[in-house]
Design a protein that fits this description.
Helices cover 20% and strands 41% of the residues. The protein is an alpha+beta fold. It is elongated. It contains two helices and six strands; from the N terminus they run αβββαβββ. It has a six-stranded mixed beta sheet, with helices on one face.
């Protein structure tokens, strides 16, 4: 899913957008995005389905040049365009700018419904004694 999120960011901000999925020992090039998964939760439903919620965080590093303006522009673009990632709906979106660190913290959940396939042994025959 991280790759799909990176693709979504690239579709919004262009193919030249710098997007990281791992910490960088030498630091991040700025401006850039850092994407990571925060939490996964599931709730069992009827007929083998599960409601699944994956929580993610994207941190935008604005850099030194006009960081506050860049954070505002990035937030506006994400509000307007970051709605679906693949078949998952992005909900509970929140944005926290940090002027001191020159970062924009974007947190969201991807909600979906999944079906667990059961590869266990299936019934091979049924003995029926009765009337039809």
């Amino acid at each position: 899913m991280i790759n799909e999120i990176a693709d979504k960011l690239a579709s919004i901000f262009g193919e030249d957008a710098v997007i990281y999925a791992e910490n960088q020992p030498d630091g991040f090039k700025e401006p850039s995005f850092y994407v990571h998964k925060v939490l996964t939760s599931t709730t069992h439903e009827l007929a083998g389905y599960q409601a699944k919620t994956d929580s993610y965080q994207i941190i935008f590093f604005a850099g030194d040049e006009d960081p506050n303006q860049k954070m505002i522009e990035v937030e506006e673009q994400l509000v307007a365009n970051f709605d679906y990632v693949g078949n998952y709906l992005a909900v509970n979106r929140s944005f926290t700018p940090n002027a001191t660190e020159r970062t924009l913290d974007f947190q969201f959940d991807l909600k979906g419904r999944v079906y667990n396939t059961d590869d266990g042994e299936k019934m091979k025959r049924l003995m029926f004694n009765g009337t039809r």
